[in-house]
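Hallway conversation turned thread

IA: we were arguing at lunch whether anyone had actually written out TetR family transcriptional regulator end to end. Turns out nobody had. So, for the record, here is the sequence (215 residues) and right after it the structure tokens. Reply here if something looks off.
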Amino acid sequence: MTGTRIKPRPDRRTAILDAAEEQFARHGYDGVTLRAIAKHAGVDVALSNYYFGPKRDLFDAVLVRRAEILNEMRLNQLDECLAGSDQLPSVEAIIRAYLRPLLTGDHVQEEGWKNYYALIAYVNNSPEWGGQLMTQFFDPLVDRFMDAFRLALPGIEDRDLYWAYHCLSGALTLTFAQTGRIDHLSGGLCRSNDLADAYEHMVKFTAAGFESFRQ
């Protein structure tokens, strides 16, 4: 008698998170219902309620899942940057530590990460969501990077550093959206889904912006 191989049971909790991530990224928070998410995940809506509760709690769970991964990667990069120099860290090295885990590596082409980045772009550009959620999930990370910029740029006013960071964050958010706008404007010279190319150009441009405050 030949044994029958039993397929592993799908992780239904993960399936709900993946479906919610995709639906929120495509339609925004208000354009999605828990029933639609459950249907997309192939589960009963009661199971979604069991795991996550109301829609807002599911939305938060989607955001925090990958935020924790990204924050750990970026802080590890920052620690390496600060430990690897006997002198003051360079602005470019700090920016690379901030951006590299987000825009380089095989994971950035995975559908789940694309959906997450689109969702972050949506949240960060929403007056309703941006302040509260970005504060909750990312402020401790940003505080660490701001301290590093202060080390790299002694004597520069905090006001200037925060505006420089604002421009860096804005460029990153627009890149996350991958709207195809730059593809059209450049006649195909640039592709909004080429995150590695965006990374190199963003590093050079934003590093020069931070450095300009030395003058």
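OS: looked through it. The chain is about 70% helix and 0% strand.
IA: good, adding that to the notes. The CA atoms of residues 2 and 71 lie 48 Å apart.
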